[in-house]
Structure formats: structure tokens, C-alpha cells
Amino acid sequence: LGIGFILFFFTAFTGMGGHLLGANPAVTKAGLAISNVLPGSIAAKPDSIVPHYMNMISEGSPWLVGLLAICALAAMQSTGAAYMSTAGGILTRDLYKRYLNPASTHNMQKLAGRMGVGFIVVSALLVATYSRDALVLLGGLAVAFGFQMWTPLAAVCWFPWITRQGATYGLLAGIIGVIFTEKFGLGILGDMGLDYWGRWPLTIHSAGWGMLLNASVCIVVSFLTQNQEDLANRMKYHNFLREHASLPASKKGLVPVAWAITLAWMFFGIGPGAVIGNDIFGAPNAGIDNWTFGMPSIWAWQILFWLLGVGMMWFLAYKMNMSTIPETQIEALVEDIGDTAEEQAQRV
């Protein structure tokens, strides 16, 4: 809880504090800044605010700069480790074990996973070193591509009628949708004389266009490729989830409340309803004396919904059992797929 609190508020304090320390020329000009220790050029490049903070304290507290650098490296390492282990698992379980060597043992899978991770890391380092343009391109596409995994996630967790073919072709359509609403794909279309739209048409992010195509193709293909035998196989997993991860009967009545709270928070906190916060606590140009909380209305609105968001997450996590340990005893549906049949027999 303590780490979550720090992560939640540190970013907010870092960004909003910069406004009051000279990083926002408009705030400084309005007389709201309490100091001018940060340059106004940060407003044009907000990502540089953290390095500026570190430079400010480097002379007075060099030990703190070292500690922050270690924390940054630890954060990058932990994030990278999760990505690398996931990539290794995907290559091992979904490619090597499934298609190349179905009889592979644990040790063989570990070796294959390590080799796959090594290849990915070396490739990433080469791209970062020799092709900055490719790094920016891949970084921009990564989030939009990752968002397309929502359809397989929905299939695994909620919708057993989504077929393998539907999820696969939906992902392919989503990736195509992302590519051709980003600069990379638009360049290809331009060379073909097909530049009929710009980046992010109708101001909708490429991830949104990809998901629109993804979901549409996924639904259509799934209905065209229904198979009762495959459905029965998928239902084994879904019945397992329903047995161990579903809400108890005593909490079923909270489901409409949870939906209402979540949708309301998304609409007013990060959606169109946030415009109410522009002047509900005082007009933006009214001055500090006419602001209810001594700060711009939209700041107060966002802080209010940060706090409400914490309450919402607590409600969903603990009252709706979205982050709790199952109360029932869990038994594996199958034996560990990493062992061969012979090894399983020996262990029994």
C-alpha cells in the first residue's frame, strides 16, 4: 500500500510542482509560481523535468542523486525483467514446446527460454544503438499493438464463443489498422497514392482504430467458425474460472454498483465530463482569490478524482474480489505441461 501511495502521488507532485517552480511560463506570468528555480523551457519538453530536478539537488545532496539513479535503474530492471521473462515464456511454451519439440523437458525449455531472451535483448540493444528512428517507430507502435491483445484476453476471461480463428484474424486486422493510421503506414499509403486520411483519423488514436477492426473481424469470424467440440474444450477452462474466480452470491448485487461507479469515474475523471472541472471551483481567469481551493479549478477537480479513483480501485479490488485470493481449493486441470509423460509417471 505504501509503495502504491508513493507511485500514485510522486508523479502528480513532480508534474504539478513544476508548474509552481517556474516550469510553466503561463503560471509564472500569472504570479502563481512560488519560485523560478526551473527553466520555462520545460513546458516545451515536459519529459525533461525529472533530469532538471536531479540537477537541482546534485550539488547540495549528491547522495540523493545517486540513490535516485539506483532507483531508476532498479525500476528499469524490474520492468525489463518482466518483459524478458514473458517473452521467454511465449517463445518456449507457444513456439518451441508446441511446435518444435513437444516432448521437451523442463531443462530443455529453460535453455530454449534463455536463448530466446538472449536473442531479444541483443536485438533490442542493436536497434537502440544503431537505429534511433526504428526505436522511436517501434516504441510508438508498441502500445497500440499491445492494446489489440484485449480481444484474446476477453476470450480467455469472459467470452468462450470467441474462436481461435476469430481471435487470430482479429489480431491481424487490428495490427493492420494500427499500422495504417500511424506515420509508418501512412508513408506506405502515400507511396501508393492512397493517402486518403492522416494520422489518427477523427482524432481517434491508432489503438482505437485497430481495436475497431480487431473486434469487428473477431466477432464475424468467430460466428463463422463455431465448432461444438472446440467450444466444449474451451468451456473446461471457463468453468474452472467460474468455480474459483466468480463472485459469491452475497456480492452479486454489487455488480451494477461497480459498473455504475467505474463508468461514472471514467466519464468525469478522464473522459468528456472532465470539462466540468474547468470552472466548477472558480473560473480559470478569476484569480487565486476567487478559486475555492486556492488553485485552478481543473487542478482541484483532478485531485478530487485521483482520490475517488483510489476509493474505486479499493472497492473493485477487495469488495468485488478482483484482487483477492480464491477461497476455494484450486486443483490443476492438467499436469505440468513441461514434463513428458514418462517423467510424470516416474514422479507418481
Walk me through what this model shows.
This protein has 348 residues and is mostly helical. Among the domains are: 131-246, no CATH class; 248-326. Helix content is 66%, strand content 0%. The protein contains 14 helices and no strands. It has helices spanning 2-20, 25-29, 49-57, 62-100, 106-130, 132-147, 150-157, 164-179, 183-191, 206-224, 228-245, 255-270, 297-319, 341-347. Helix 4 packs across helix 5 and helix 12 (255-270) runs antiparallel to helix 13. It is globular. The mean pLDDT is 83.
Short recap of the structure:
By secondary structure, this protein is an all-alpha fold. Helix content is 66%, strand content 0%.
Strand residue content: under 5%
User: Uncertain spans, ≥5 residues at pLDDT below 50?
Assistant: none
End-to-end distance, in Å?
A: 42 Å
Q: Helix- and strand-based class? A: mainly alpha
Radius of gyration, taken over Cα atoms and rounded to an integer in Å: 26 Å
Series of H and E elements: HHHHHHHHHHHHHH
The assembly state of the depicted protein chains is single chain
Percent helix: 55-70%
Q: Please work out how many helical segments DSSP would assign.
A: 14
Structure summary, number of beta strands:
0
Return the average pLDDT rounded to an integer: 83
Question: Shape, please?
Answer: globular
- Biggest beta-sheet profile: none
